[in-house]
Amino acid sequence: MSVKHSRPNPTRALLALSLIASTLPAARAQDAAPANAQPAAGEVQAVVVTGTRSLNRRTLETESPVDVISSKELLSTGSGELATVLSRLLPSMNFPRPVGADASDAVRPAQLRGLSPDQTLVLVNGKRRHSSAVVNVNGSLGRGSAPVDLNAIPLAAIDHIEVLRDGAAAQYGSDAIAGVVNIILKKGADGGEAEVSYGQYSKGDGEQTTVRGSTGFKLGKDGWVRVAVEAANRNPTNRSFADPRPEAGPRQGTITQRYGDPDSRPRSLFVNSQVRVNDDIDWYAFANYGERKTSSAATWRTAYTTPFDKNAPHLRTALYPEGFLPLEDSKSTDSSLVTGLRGELAGWRWDASLNYGRNRFSLDVDNTTNLSKDFPDPAQTSFYAGKLTSTQELFNLDVARDIPVAWMAGPLTVALGLEARYESYEIGAGEPNSWFGGGAQGFSGFRPENAGKNSRNNQSLYLNLEGDITQQLSGSLAVRHERYSDFGNTTSGKASARFAFTPQFALRGTFSNGFRAPSLAQENYTITTTNFLVINKLNTPIETGTFPVDSLAAQALGAQPLKPERARNLSFGAQWQPIRNWTTTVDLYRIDIDDRIVFSSNLQLSSPAGKDLNAALQQRGIFVGAARYFTNAVDTRTKGVDVVSTYHMNLAQGARADLTLAYNHNDNEVRHVAATPAVLGAANLVLVDRQSVNRLTVGSPKDKLTLSGDYTRGIWSGHANVTRYGKFTVPQNNVALDQTYDPQWTLDVSGSVRLAGNWRLTAGVDNLTNRYPAQVTSNGNLNVNGTQPYSIWAPNGFNGRFMYVKAGYSW
């Protein structure tokens, strides 16, 4: 299926940039991100650029909560994955480690404030980052989402990260419901660093080797380019238990499958640059290219089809007389380029840019076979399953000015902007043998009827006003209007205020309405594959079709066109800084989301009640045992509180200690569920089942507490981080099969020493106490007959203790 829309012309936009550059008079150019926002020694606040157009807004002056995370903090653990590190540093972020969830094993989603992963906007240097092509369609966190792949951004390239914990659709557009993650890249020609690290888990597996580095060079007299590279080899882990089933055949009672982190080989390059064209204009550009090859394990296929078939004629396949483990070997390729001009005209700061980004995800299924009865090549063991491609092209123009106003204590910052964005989403078919009959075991490929390219465009206008009304009161207003080619117009607004009762104490609050446009992936993703569903307490393979809402199959099942999610954000907080080195913030929030897009239930058509629906699909040439589609089916409310308290101590003999307490409590509630379409109700099917609803409410931890400390004295330094993950529940449609997990404590520690000034050696242990989540109950075979003992929803994973060493050099 192909949908064509008009689209912005990048050539015309580039010409417009050139005309702007050639007509501007002399003025001092502005930096994209003023001051690499790190606190000075002895201070606990920094200049921020996220959520504000002011040039000198500091963390303790913001009307919305903003966390600033330095590159030192990002490298304070043994992990090289950005999402993993952020989940340890931010109590409001959750990042479990899915296993056996197809492409979600390779492109793992993270969530902020317990909301969907695609309800958090990701920026790089303030510019919108493209989303991943992968749709999370299995039973992991973020089911139904296609968010930005945070792990595609290497730690070596990052100077710091600003996390805006507030709705910001009026400021940045779609997706900014839960908050905004703005990744600020390293810049400048001076200095550099290189580091090599090695680590492994105490079980003796999961070895990780990482090499990363960053350095800068001058470009002409007034320019620079910064290059960051990173490469890692991460071997798989395995926490499966022995398979006790008789159908395991010769391997009965031995570990016959892989259940843990996949084998991963990421490689990435980031370039950030700026050149002073003349006294009037700066040109800037940043780009990246990265590849991540991942080999993840599907569910083990036993030697025999039933416990009673132990004779050779009843082997599942002669290729694998002892059973086999299908491997999903994927390659995720990210490329992006942002380039623009900025300067100042008659007191107006301006920034015009072009933004291109693409993620391509291709998949091969290896060590497998196609078990279809009439399969023409029973000896084939490797299949190309197809590819997914998500592309973004964007033109943006921002102008801002500080205007003196007589009755205000400070200038009024006025910011205007316009944006045009083109998006496309493409599915490429796999080779015929990958989808023939039931398809390749492990993952049935994309079929020709699944293939196609869809696109849309949108344009937006926005206005921001902010300033200090009095010495004590500051405020801001934002409004944004957008027009999408596939569903029409939407308008968002935001109002914020902060009142300082004393220099040490202030209250702040915001109210906004926002939206999230349905992604092209949610509108158009389609595939037929084998899923394992719990039927009559048995983990049963069943052919499952995922259908776009505008397809004949989805419409026959009652699907309706998708519309935007609508959000209302309300927050109220307090800031307290009794002394210069100690600050505490407390922020309460409530987020209401109407028409939230979720994945429907797995609609089982093979049941007697579903025979009429099944017959209707078969008349259209669609042969599946279950079906599903996206739907605007639920209204939710999220309430919570964030607490962050930071204290810096200057000790004797030049020593320093930095202490941080951070806490998040989050409560999700489903307020309304859409009625099941009559055509489904007649077949005793439910559009959104109990499991789908409860995934939204109890699937992530209710709260998280982190206590961290850093100590530095001379050449020595140490770091410790204690995290308490709150309870969560993995729900099922049968309430008796629900499993609630108790809170879990973990401890991460590390120590470093500087040698010869420029060298640093570090040794550390993540999860020092070797804590594992509780094992999955065997009730109902939810842990696949005892072979998969841990839940993929566990917020800290289930790999155990990780030990690592690092050696770094800086100049």
| Overall geometry | globular
How large is the radius of gyration? 27 Å
Q: Please tally the β strands and state the result.
A: 35
Number of DSSP helical runs = 10
The structural domain count equals: 1
Secondary structural class: mainly beta
Corresponding CATH architecture = Beta Barrel
Flag low-confidence runs. Answer: 1-43, 309-313
The CATH topology comes to Maltoporin, Chain A
Level-1 CATH class name: Mainly Beta
| Helical content band | under 10%
Describe the structure using short key phrases.
single chain; five-stranded mixed β-sheet; 35 strands; 811 residues; Maltoporin, Chain A; 22-stranded antiparallel β-barrel; mainly beta
